[in-house]
Amino acid sequence: MEHLPLFIKIKHRPCLVVGGGVVAARKVRVLLARGARLTLVSPELCPELHALQSQFVWQNDVFDEHYLDDQFLVVAATDNTEVNARVYQAANLRGLLVNKTDDSKRSAVIFPSIVERFPLQVAFSTGGDAPWLARLLRARLDALLPKHWGQLSKVAGKLRQKVKRSLSSSEARRRFWARTQDDTTLNAFLKQGNLAAAELWLQQELQAPQTGEVILVGAGPGDPDLLTIKALNELQKADVVLFDQLVSAEILSLIRPEAERISVGKKAGHHSVPQDQINELLVKQAQDGKRVVRLKGGDPFMFGRGAEELQTLKAAGIRYQVVPGITAAAGATAYAGIPLTHRDHAQSAVFITGHSKQDGKEPDWSSLAQSRQTLVIYMGLMRSAHIQQRLIEHGLPASTPVALIERGTTPLQRVVRGTLNELGTLAEQVVSPSLIVIGGVAALADSLAWFNPQPVAQDSAQEQYA
């Protein structure tokens, strides 16, 4: 990379733009917005520059080197490559900062793409290689960055020294802002433009005890692109993350690098850390004043023991939040081309788990063995033969379509299809994590399937999901 990203204060500095077309107009807008003292040299002006003419000095002339005298920044933005080259060479010989709009590789200065929430600015560049990619990134960042963060930046600036005096360590200050920045009360003040109320609220929070908190976060079914924006925000604010075994390496890579990571290794049939110990860990970490993310595959309230963990936290007086995730029943079936409902096949969908607590009661098989509904079974591989037998005994036709979705939404996704009387045998062909779908909609997988995962190295993939 030949260019060093810098933010340069351009206000009141003399700048020269050579050119009077739409390209020049884009540069003029950027410079004027930052208070540059602008001169423009061109025999003609496009309509937009005519509208802005009162804000700069227009030299109705062709370029001459004397226009470079006393300039700080020069932009060569004509539609004539020879003129642009002459401007560049003359400015470069004088040691001026120069941008040549038709040749970013030779420019001493590149105008970056900018996402702005004044006074907050995010600037980035592809070095001129892929302007389309810069535009795409700008659109994404513009959608992601909250509109009120500029106001937050202003308030944070006013309180910076007070926060520094109240909280001596940088880690304590980071935790304070991580805890407060997404608060609904604060954000309501900021969105209203009521900075005085926002400042007062933050000062009150600064005096309050700095307590820990647990955020229960759903990681989704596997594809990291299905992680919610709120979940990503929490991963990047966490002090410590307790994660299950089914959370992919790609999602774990999004965690704040300084955060402590603790694997609690839970998956069906294998709990490397008992639930009671997980509960104790959550309480202890929060009592130490940390922001704790409990990261669970899928949705934390869908067969994930999330409610049990929150009950423990509530009993211990620990604050908590819940960030929902896309559950496997929605994510894996969608990637397999299986709709949960369909006017011709199913008017309802029922989600059950293949196992329950010890001595747990059997499900109501008669209600599950209904036609024109979709039955989705989590963690059912080990009891698939029993499920097959009980559903058939209670009247569900043996010819009912079934589908087993192995490692749904990931590059290792595989869908095995058959009929209910084959379920026990089909289950022997797949590995965990797998989802069982029973009902007429399962037959649509062949015609509606759209996700075609590319083959990946099995060894590395097995490591990731082992």
UniProtKB/TrEMBL annotation:
Sequence similarity: In the C-terminal section; belongs to the precorrin methyltransferase family. In the N-terminal section; belongs to the precorrin-2 dehydrogenase / sirohydrochlorin ferrochelatase family.
Residues binding NAD(+): V22, V23, P43, E44
Residue ranges of the region described as Uroporphyrinogen-III C-methyltransferase: 212-466
Pfam short name (any one): Sirohm_synth_M
Keywords from the named record: Cobalamin biosynthesis, Lyase, Methyltransferase, Multifunctional enzyme, NAD, Oxidoreductase, Phosphoprotein, Porphyrin biosynthesis, S-adenosyl-L-methionine, Transferase
Active site feature: D244 (proton acceptor), K266 (proton donor)
Cross-referenced PROSITE patterns: SUMT_1, SUMT_2
Residues reported to bind S-adenosyl-L-methionine: P221, G297, G298, D299, T327, A328, M379, G408
HAMAP family on file: Siroheme_synth (MF_01646)
Biological pathway: Porphyrin-containing compound metabolism; siroheme biosynthesis; sirohydrochlorin from precorrin-2: step 1/1; Porphyrin-containing compound metabolism; siroheme biosynthesis; precorrin-2 from uroporphyrinogen III: step 1/1; Cofactor biosynthesis; adenosylcobalamin biosynthesis; sirohydrochlorin from precorrin-2: step 1/1; Cofactor biosynthesis; adenosylcobalamin biosynthesis; precorrin-2 from uroporphyrinogen III: step 1/1
Listed Gene3D superfamilies: Cobalt-precorrin-4 Transmethylase, Domain 1 (3.40.1010.10), Methyltransferase, Cobalt-precorrin-4 Transmethylase, Domain 2 (3.30.950.10), NAD(P)-binding Rossmann-like Domain (3.40.50.720), Sirohaem synthase, dimerisation domain (1.10.8.210), Siroheme synthase, domain 2 (3.30.160.110)
Boundaries of every Sirohaem synthase dimerisation domain copy: 148-206
UniProt-listed Enzyme Commission number(s): 2.1.1.107, 1.3.1.76, 4.99.1.4
CDD domains xref list: SUMT
Domain Tetrapyrrole methylase: residue ranges: 214-423
UniProt catalytic activity: siroheme + 2 H(+) = sirohydrochlorin + Fe(2+); uroporphyrinogen III + 2 S-adenosyl-L-methionine = precorrin-2 + 2 S-adenosyl-L-homocysteine + H(+); precorrin-2 + NAD(+) = sirohydrochlorin + NADH + 2 H(+)
Protein name: Siroheme synthase
Region of interest (Precorrin-2 dehydrogenase / sirohydrochlorin ferrochelatase), ranges: 1-202
Domain Siroheme synthase central per the UniProt entry, residue ranges: 117-143
Function: Then it catalyzes the NAD-dependent ring dehydrogenation of precorrin-2 to yield sirohydrochlorin. Finally, it catalyzes the ferrochelation of sirohydrochlorin to yield siroheme.
